[in-house]
Amino acid sequence: MVAKMQFEKRLRAGLKELQITASDLQVEQLLSYLALLIKWNKAYNLTAVRDPIEMIDRHLLDSLSILPFVQAGELTDIGSGAGLPGIPLAIMKPDLQVLSLDSNGKKTRFQFQVKASLKLNNFKVEQVRAENLQLQAKSKQLVSRAFASLKDFVKLTQPLAADDARWLAMKGLYPKDELAELPEGYACQQSHVLQVPYEEGQRHLLILVKQAKE
Q: In terms of Cα–Cα distance, which of 68, 90, 65 is closest to 77?
């Protein structure tokens, strides 16, 4: 009980610093997700991070640092692992339809458990590689968190993306070299420095788009 109070205090302080308003239900859902992550991580090694406080900082708050840049509608999370950033974003934006993709069975089983436990009706999981999936409706918003190089991110997900799609790439240091290797026809529309509470390392969000053909 003491631990949960400590976790809630840390989470609420971080959300406040990010200027994110969360309902009591959303805080409870985030903490329930954290509890499941702690439990499953012991058996399934979902993340190298073991300390719960560090999980709050490096997973929950880090994922939510891009919340202001996520548009309404739908979002496809590529190589989501333990459901990051897709699950925290689905919790905080109930009107956002999130499709989470990962090829690892243990990780997708964990995500199914989270979906059921938290009753996340706006969250869907597929155990598949992005390049092997066919979507009926192309995605206008694709996100990755340390999934691959920028070049691989756009190339692997090109078949899933609408013509006006935005690729939200979460990175650590500013990836100058990766930007120089972007395939022809793609450009970095926006770059944002992410201020993640309690985290000293650099974090960046790059928003990539297809360039209009002249």
A: 90
